[in-house]
TrEMBL record:
Keywords: Endonuclease, Hydrolase, Nuclease. Residues 370-425 form the HNH nuclease domain. This is Endonuclease. The lineage of its organism: Bacteria, Bacillati, Actinomycetota, Actinomycetes, Mycobacteriales. The keyword Hydrolase applies. It comes from Gordonia lacunae. The keyword Nuclease applies. InterPro entries: DUF222, HNH_nuc. GO terms for molecular function: endonuclease activity.
Length: 536
């Protein structure tokens, strides 16, 4: 007779020790966040704070070890992610996965494909990180120094340098690490003879960093001698006091050698800019001249190579708020109006129906320029529609999101969605690829919905949107609530939800002025209102 008393109960199985430790860790953190600190003496409070920071570093090291195990088991591939970095970003919620991966390779023990254990690239630094005597900022500063050691340096010298830098990291701040590391690098290569052309080529880079709260962005880079020579020559002839001054309508533009000497001298007298500001304005004037002359070409991914800007009609009328360019840059409305006075913009307004052909069915596979402009005008149309992607409109293609072209999809604007080349190639039926569709109803109507395909038998991943929060609208909502709490509820006619992007959208194409004699034109605000009332 079969034994019917045995029952498999997973709930009675002992939990792995790692699971128990993490649960205990969170319980301790819950208590540590609320524990009364008043009984601590001053010295004890300092010790507690110092030990907590050390524990944070040690926890990060333990997390790196777990990420290494995740990679060894190919969990990113099993859950549908193409890369470990993508998995770290979306599933583990790691803030900067690229930097974290660099730390991991330098300080964690990894597992090779054949099962062999691969020791950390910098074992001394890894030991200090595991003990908590250095934090993530110390590790980053140390790796930045070690990465600048020329390849031609002997291996034993590199090992000694790694130990020296780990010793420095344990006793100094990240800023001190950078400064002392520069002295060590100068000692290793005092004459600069070990840094050859290939070394300089390897280190070249140029970054336009993310915009700050005031709309400005920092430009950082390491220039090759060739590019440095060209930039310095540009600044030598364009960055002169009085030249290319945006605050002076009578300032000469271009090279100082082509300027009228008397006009230049008078403009220089009025010029109160710093040398750094003069350099900035010279580069801006050069790029403006390049765009006006059409040297960048006529088309890029179906969009004209010009400043293409999206703005809200209400913001234009009240001369406040922010516009968005096709490259994803935020532009204050007053700056847009000032630019529009110089370069003769035109506005295309789409209401209910449009004269521009936007529906082609099976008659055309590639989206037209008009479709790309309308796509840019849609909510979040300034970026790729894939969740978490911030590639701007100038870098995207129009993806047949509702149904692939090869399977009978239509080249209609309400079936298309912006997708960068990488995500567009990742759409398909296999695990690790994406399935997409267009939402046909609700508040997300017209948006592209993405689902990452998991392996057969695995739980399906949720559908996701690349929803960018409407910060001005949300702020206005909170401000209205605060005012209602203070002054009482008031009716606001502008509180109703905005219309679907398929109903009303605004596209501004800022074009260079047409050649010919100047003609009188109204003020920028009057020009905008006239354009808004006109039909294209």
């Amino acid at each position: 007779m079969a034994d019917t008393t045995h029952v498999d109960d997973e709930s009675t199985a002992p939990r792995p020790r790692a699971v128990e430790l993490v649960a205990e860790l969170h319980a301790i953190l819950d208590e540590l966040q609320t524990v009364d600190l008043s009984p601590c003496t001053d010295d004890e409070l300092i010790d507690v704070a110092s030990a907590t920071e050390r524990a944070i570093a040690r926890t990060t090291f333990a997390g790196d070890r777990q990420v290494a195990e995740v990679e060894a088991r190919d969990l990113p591939g099993k859950t549908g992610y193409r890369t470990l970095t993508q998995f770290m970003n979306h599933r583990l919620r790691i803030t900067n996965p690229v930097r974290r991966r660099k730390h991991l390779n330098a300080t964690a023990t990894l597992t090779c494909l054949n099962g062999d254990r691969l020791e950390p690239e910098h074992p001394t630094l890894a030991e200090a990180f595991a003990q908590g005597t250095v934090g993530t900022a110390h590790v980053q500063a140390t790796l930045d120094v070690l990465d600048r050691i020329p390849n031609a340096v002997d291996h034993d010298v590199k090992v000694a340098a790694e130990r020296q830098m780990a010793e420095i990291a344990e006793a100094h701040t990240p800023a001190d690490i950078t400064q002392l590391g520069a002295r060590l690098l100068a000692h290793l290569d005092p004459d600069g003879t070990l840094a050859d052309d290939s070394e300089r080529t390897r280190r070249r880079n140029l970054w336009v960093n993310r915009q700050r709260a005031d709309g400005t962005a920092k430009l950082t880079g390491t220039l090759t001698p060739e590019l440095a020579a060209r930039v310095t020559m540009l600044l030598a002839v364009w960055a002169k006091p009085g030249m290319n001054n945006p605050n002076d309508p009578y300032s000469p533009t271009g090279s100082f050698e082509d300027a009228d000497p008397e006009a230049l001298a008078a403009a220089a007298e009025r010029d109160d800019r710093t040398p750094a500001q003069i350099n900035h304005d010279a580069l801006n004037a050069l790029l403006k001249a390049v765009l006006d002359d059409g040297l960048l070409g006529k088309s890029h991914r179906g969009l004209p190579v010009q400043l293409i800007i999206k703005a809200d009609l209400t913001d234009l009328i009240r001369e406040a708020g922010l516009a968005t360019t096709a490259t994803g840059t935020l532009l204050p409305i007053p700056d847009l109006i000032a630019m529009a006075g110089d370069v003769q913009p035109w506005l295309a307004i789409f209401k209910d129906a449009t004269a521009v052909p936007l529906h082609f069915g099976r008659g055309k596979r590639l989206a037209t320029r008009e479709q790309r402009l309308v796509s840019f005008a849609r909510p979040d149309g300034e970026v790729c529609s894939a969740p978490g992607c911030d590639q701007p409109a100038t870098h995207v293609e129009l993806h047949h999101a509702q149904k692939d072209w090869a399977k009978g999809g239509l080249t209609d604007i309400d079936d298309l969605a912006p997708a960068c080349p990488r995500h567009n190639r990742m759409v398909g039926p296999k695990p690790g690829q994406y399935t997409t569709r267009i939402a046909r109803s609700g508040t997300d109507e017209g948006r592209c919905v993405w689902r990452l395909n998991a392996e057969p038998g695995a739980p399906p991943n949720p559908e996701r949107l690349n929803r960018r929060p409407d910060l001005p609208r949300r702020f206005a909502h909170h401000l209205n609530i605060v005012r209602d709490e203070i002054h009482g509820p008031t009716a606001r006619p502008g509180d109703q939800a905005r219309s679907s992007w398929l109903t009303i959208s605004h596209v501004i194409d800022v074009r260079p002025p047409r050649p010919g004699p100047p003609t009188p034109r109204p003020s920028p605000v009057e020009a905008h209102l006239m354009e808004l009332l006109a039909t294209r």
